[in-house]
Design a protein that fits this description.
- This protein has 74 residues and is an alpha/beta fold.
- The protein has helices at residues 14-25, 39-49, 65-73; strands at 5-10, 30-36, 53-56.
- Helix 1 (14-25) links the parallel strand 1 (5-10) and strand 2.
Length: 74
């Protein structure tokens, strides 16, 4: 049984999120488990979906990337 690396994308740029999601979908061992354009939703999705990797922008509305990282650490 092959385990996929689950990736969550949090970036304000919709085109970037879509492009990265498309690239990940072409990889057999990776899966995009969600994407968002704000830090609050990134925290919610991270808690719900437990991604292996979080690709995140620093500048986002509601909570920036630094705030999200701080909360994920605690």
């Amino acid at each position: 049984m092959e385990t996929k690396t689950c990736v969550l994308i949090a970036d304000i740029d919709e085109d970037f999120r879509r492009l990265l999601g498309d690239v990940l979908s072409q990889e057999d061992d990776m899966e995009c488990v969600g994407n968002t354009d704000n830090g609050v939703e990134a925290l919610t999705l991270a808690a719900e979906r437990q991604p292996d990797v979080l690709v995140m922008d620093i500048i986002m509305p509601r909570k920036d990337g630094f705030m999200v990282l701080e909360e994920l650490r605690s």
